[in-house]
Every structure is written in C-alpha cells, then in structure tokens.
Design a protein that fits this description.
Layout: H1 2-12, H2 17-23, E1 36-44, H3 47-54, E2 69-73, E3 78-83, E4 87-95, H4 105-115, E5 121-132, H5 143-146, E6 153-157, E7 162-166, E8 170-171, E9 174-181, H6 188-206, H7 209-236, H8 241-283, E10 286-287, H9 294-390, H10 395-423
Parallel strand pairs: 5-9
Antiparallel strand pairs: 1-4, 1-5, 2-3, 3-4, 6-7, 6-10, 7-9, 8-9
Helix pairs in contact: 6-8, 7-8, 7-9, 8-9, 9-10
Length: about 425
C-alpha cells in the first residue's frame, strides 16, 4: 500500500529535493582522532573548468551525478573533496602519530597523482598538524623552526579545548598551523580543523577584492577629475552641447565597464568577510598571555581590506549617481533652451499669422472692390442694351444706383465664403 504513496511522492517531488537535503549533511570532514595531519589545497576554478576536470577523476568518483562533496579512501590517507561556487577544496588527511608535523614527504605519494588533475589555480595551500596533550599550552621545543617568532599568533579556541600556533606565512609554499587538543574526540576534532581551515580560506578569498579595488582606483580618480572638469564646462558653456553629451556618455561607459568587471568580486568579498566573522565567533577565541589572537589578526589584516572594497563600491555608486545627475542637468538646460526656442518660434508664427490675416483682409477688401467694379460694369452694359432697345432705363442712372447694392452683395458673399472655410 505504501509503495504506491512513495511512487506518487517521487513523481511529485521537486528535482532538487534530494540535493538540498544532502546539502545539509555535506561539507564536513570525516571523523578522525588526534594525532593527525591535514594538507589542503584551495583552487579557484570556473564552472567549465570543474566540469572539464571531472572526466579525469578515477571512475567518476568525483562530481558523479552533479555531486559537490566526496570522501575517497586512498589507502593510508583520506581525500575529502568539495566543490563550491568558484573554488574547490582538496583535503588530504593522514591519521596517526608523527615526529615531524610539517613533513611534506609524508603526503607526496597521495598528492602527486591528484595535483595535476585539480582544475583551476591554487589560491591557498595549508598544512595543519594536530596532536593531543594534557597541557595544550605546551608547544614542542622545535617551534622556532616552524614559525616566524615576530608574527607568531598563539591563542586558545573552543573555550580552552585547544591551542593553536601559526604565523600565517608561507613555508615552502604552504601555510602552517599547529594545534594541541586536550582530547581526541573524533567528532570534535574534525569540526575544529574545518573551522580553522575555512577561516583561512574565506579570509584569503575575501582579500581577492583588494587588488581589483587598488587596480581601478586610479581610473576612478581620473573619472572624478574628468567629471569635475565637465561640470565646469557645462556651467561656463565652454563646449558645444553635443560634445558635452558625448563626454558624459563616455564617462558613463567607463564606469559601467568597471562596475561590470568588479561587482561580483566586491559582493563576494563582503560575503566571505561575513563568513570569516562568523567562523571567528564560532571558535570562541581567547588570548594567551596578552599575545596576538586569531581575532586580532583577522581584524587587523582583513577588515581594512574589506573596508577598502566597501569604499570602492560606494565610490562607484556615488560616481554613477553624479554622472546621472550631471547628464540630467545638461538635459534640463538643453530642454530649457529648446523650450525658449519653441516659445520664440511660436511667437514668430503668431506675428506671421497676424500679418497674413491683415494681408488677407486687405486682399479681400481689394477683391470686393474689383469684383464690384466688374459687376457694376456688367450692370452698365445691361442697362445700355435695355436703353437702346426700349429707351429704358437711363443706363447711367441704373449703373450708379446698382453700385451700393453690388458692393453690399459681393461683400456679404465673400464673408459667407470665408466663414464657411474657417468652419471646416
């Protein structure tokens, strides 16, 4: 009976239902205990690069059916792969005791077959060593060989459950972090390792916006100067209107190109910075002996860069608004001039129409006189003919008497015709 219900549920389920459920359980490292070492590679890659690289993975174990997370046993190590929107992470985990925490050779045989098949460009490579000790504050005596003392960051995390050491510098291409934990809980340690790695990853990704802001800064200054000069030219009417409109359009085009090329990167910087702040809060960091902590390091290095990017975005928006305002100001001036020209043209047309009306009235008056003259002449001819035939009437008298009647009739007829045409 319930098989039919399941069948109907499957038919009516949205295609992304299963993937969204899986999303809630992915993106985490598998359980492992201390001691352990992790080597992580973070690569920036486009969607096309990730799809193209998928065919090179063994037996399609990665990206199978659009998967975005996979755990693969490499025989002596575990590979945890995760695909994000613009980057992918490859975590190689070796569990067990170690003498040298940052020995790259221990990972060589596991990393070598995969490195060439990883799509994109490496943006971060990290080495994380985790050991268990009853006193997380005790660091092995070799720490001076592992880190730069001038940049050393030491702090407790997870309310004193663990202590970390790092200088956040590159050592033979890798960042290094040493973690000492009080217990080897196989569920707590992976979460701690993932939080530490993600904090560094998102911090590095957030910083990608800074070079873009710095690169386009000089161009924005040039646009600001050009806009100021353009505003002055509009005020002084120093250049033709067509040239000013073309110059404003050029500034808008330059701004649009910068916005299009940087908007995603700036938005990503803000998003990654927010994730960093969230990760820092979740780590519950506390200082050790007044030394530098993860919180201090992140705020001192990341926040100024993020503020620079935010200022760059605000500057872009302000410039776009100023260009729009300047264009509207110029259009208003042009519209005002056109309105004044139209007003003058209408006034000129009114004067011309008045002159044409007076001329027309004059012509009509002359026409009445001319038509009346010829009509009276016709009456005179008729009167002459009647006088010659019947000696009646006196044609001179008849012609003279007809004049006012003919003029009145011609004027009335002309008025009626003009009124009829004006009505139509």
């Amino acid at each position: 009976m319930f098989d039919e219900i399941r069948s109907e549920m499957a038919r009516r389920s949205r295609p992304e239902r299963a993937s969204l459920t899986a999303e809630m359980h992915s993106r985490k490292l598998p359980p492992f205990s201390a001691p352990a070492r992790l080597m992580q590679f973070v690569l920036l890659a486009s969607e096309a690069e990730m799809e193209a690289a998928a065919v090179h993975f063994d037996a399609g174990r990665l990206n199978a059916n659009g998967a975005r997370h996979a755990v693969i046993d490499l025989g002596g190590a575990t590979l945890v792969w995760e695909r994000h929107s613009e980057f992918a992470t490859y975590n190689f985990i070796i569990a067990g005791a170690f003498d040298a925490p940052f020995d790259e050779e221990a990972f060589a045989r596991f990393v070598a077959p995969w490195l060439g098949r990883m799509p994109g460009a490496i943006i971060r490579a990290s080495f994380l060593a985790i050991c268990r000790t009853g006193d997380p504050g005790r660091l092995p005596q070799q720490w001076a060989q592992w880190f730069d003392a001038d940049d050393l960051v030491v702090c407790d995390v997870h309310d004193g459950h663990a202590r970390i050491w790092s200088d956040f510098r590159l050592h033979d291409g890798f960042g290094r972090m040493f973690v000492a934990v009080r217990d080897d809980d196989p569920r707590r340690i992976p979460a701690l390792a993932q939080s530490l790695l993600e904090l560094g990853n998102y911090r590095k990704l957030a910083l990608l916006g800074l070079p873009a802001a710095q690169e386009h800064g000089p161009e924005l200054r040039r646009i600001e100067n050009d806009l100021a000069q353009l505003s002055g030219d509009i005020d002084r009417e120093a250049r033709p209107r067509e040239e000013l409109l073309h110059a404003i359009g050029g500034l808008g085009s330059r701004l649009a190109q910068i916005t299009a090329s940087t908007r995603y990167r700036m938005s990503a910087t803000a998003a990654y910075a927010a994730i960093c702040d969230d990760r820092v809060q979740s780590l519950a960091v506390s200082a050790v002996g007044g030394g530098q902590t993860l919180v201090g390091f992140t705020q001192r290095r990341l926040h100024p860069a993020v503020q620079t990017c935010a200022s760059f975005v605000q500057r872009l928006d302000d410039l776009a608004g100023r260009v729009t305002w300047t264009a509207e100001l110029l259009r208003t001036r042009i519209d005002t001039e056109i309105a004044a020209q139209n007003r003058d043209l209408l006034a000129s047309l009114d004067r011309r129409n008045a002159m044409q009306l007076r001329l027309q009235q004059t012509v009509e008056g002359l026409s009445v006189a001319a038509i009346s003259y010829y009509t009276v002449s016709l009456v005179g001819y008729l009167a002459k003919a009647s006088h010659a035939a019947w000696h009646w009437p006196d044609y001179e008298l008849a012609t003279g008497v007809s004049v006012p009647f003919v003029v009145a009739f011609v004027a009335w007829t002309t008025h009626r015709l003009r009124k009829a045409h004006s009505d139509h």
